[in-house]
User: What shape does this take?
Amino acid sequence: MLGDKAFSLIQELDRSQHGTLPPFNEDAVRQALEEIDSLFQQNVADINHLAEDDALVAGIHLRHAALERNKRCLLAYLYNRLERLRTMRWQLGSVLPSDVRTNLCEPELEWFAQYSSTVARYMRSLGDGQGLDLTVDLKPPKNLYIEVRCLQDYGEFELEEGEVVLLSKDSTHFLPMEHCQHLIRQGVLQHVK
Amino acid sequence: MFVTNIIKEFYDCISGKRVLVLVHSDLDAICSGKILQALFRADHILYTLCPVLTLSDLLTAVKSHKEQISSIILINCGGTLDLVEFLELPPHIKVFLADTHRPLHVCNIYSDDQIRILGQLDDDEEVPAFGDVFRDDETSESEEEDEDGVSRISESRLEKQRERRLWEQKRNKLLFDYSQFSYFAGSTATLMFELAWKLSKDTSDLLWLAIVSLSGEQLCSIREQHKLALCAADLNTHVARLHHTNHTDTTEPAADTITFQKDVQLSLYRHWSLVESMRHSPLTATSLKLWTHKGEKKMFELLAELGLPLTECRQLFCGMDVKLRSELPTLLEGKADKYGLGGLVTPSFSRSHVFHSRCSASDFAHAALALLEPPSTDGLSMSHAFLDASDCLNGSTVFAKGIASARKQLEAVYRQMQTFLDMNQVISAGPFLYATVLQGSPLAAFMSGPHVLGALGRFTLGAHVSASRNKKARSLPLVLTTPDSSQPQDWCLVCGIPPLADTSHRNFFGKAFEQAVSKTQSRAQLEFFDSHVIRLHVEDRSKFFDALISLLS
Assistant: This one.
């Protein structure tokens, strides 16, 4: 049926887990593009014969609608992938994990590099030339300090003021939030609610 | 040195610095630790909190943090040691000590500034005077050196030596008398709550922690009844005050209410069936002798007299008829005296929290104590158990787990007690009774820590006294040994329980164990802060007991 290939792309993206990026389906995209191309060629041929046969109008309309639909699906596919890529920039930082990288196509990689540098440039320009990392505290924190529990023997950890905290297993600490966030992501600390 | 103004001399000293809080692994310490944490959160005081169970835990914790920290708070640990010497403290580190273990070491009491003890001595506690324990020796020593040079033994020097010997004898006697009995002073959680109150940061959550700790003391019966009652009355005034300020302006039903009213003192009865709960509560079990057939019949008779159908009593308490449930305290109170169950219905604290059913403070204490000492088959580390117990007090899902393990633990204690009595394993050694949990028995896994050992010991002693015809039984203490969970082949735990007749709850076993160990050169580890529990090598058990018998008779 017309437009099936393009629609399957949308389905594939929709079924994948939220927040992950499935591999770029180059095959399906190419087939959808070929379909668009052949539909267009047929339409061009039919329009040339339009003066002889009025009945061709309906067919041209149908093909054009299918063509439009394919185009919409392809654009939606690409756009949504970019959206996911953008949230990843804010969540994971400028360096993508390798499993995500392999799933991207060449233009996407290029876009990501450009977007990254734009964001970085903007963040550098903030705060009177001091720079401000916008990716931390996406939601405003309720407290400057949080209570964390240490899940493994990590050893000594230095705070920004130069104080040294010894993180040993099963000890509880009350520390500045910004310093422990990456340790929480690494799974060394656990936030106690 | 004792702190007189707790805000100025303690709280103001630590604010703005990072502190190390070392919390002993017992219920009172956990509650106090949680109250302190709440205060620190409010005032943005950075802290590191580590649980400790044994002396070596304390030493390693302090050693590894010593470099980075200038003040240490010890909760329920270390008061009985000479801290400066034991921890090898550099002079810039200040130690704040809040310990219920008594007697406190005289060096801590007379420390100038480095050791600050929070809380006050009770009226009936006496500490040897400074002059009797410490003496300025430097002058006499330098004199001695001078005289050595002359190499002449003068009369005045002999006189001095004699005087010194006498003084030392007197000092040793004083110190022995002072440290002979180990006992417990008022709960640290109450002290911490009062600190919160003085800082105007008291909330009903913090108050509840103090209450739970108090009822934990009641369960472990480590203090005199009348003192506990006084503390409960004190806390009740706080309850009244907090609820008055909370609910004057709202018309809605209170979201969180703590009440102090007459309640039945049966273990976990709100989470169990009435019959089971009566069987596993020490009070009812010992006075009705529920481990015998006759006792069982007597319990049914009691229930019949109260008008409670057996089918109702055998199902979970929450499934019982609402009318029976609400009448239970009054019904039981009427019949308690007839069955010798005085003290079964006494006022106690309970709390109803928004959409949860009412829970009594002792339920929380039971749950936390059970989580603190999980059966060794679970294989949890001490610090993990500590965190579990501390989470359980927040009333989260861990609480349900705590109740379940408390039930299991109570059942194990009851079955072990029954085994002791049925097999006549409570043996009189003359000056004391002793009983041994056999190695390899499935129940031995549950007897893993000081609290549950104490509970088993008191239950066994109570049951033995009520079953025994010997009138002397009431005045005999009990020594309990059980295979140590970590190395059951080699080590065992030994726990001493003071006699029932002794109402002061002072325990002389700590000192007695220490002396017996040093006399026989047994391989033993006097590692616990509760000095009446020690670890002993299995092979040295018999000679240790021989020494203990000769020491106590």
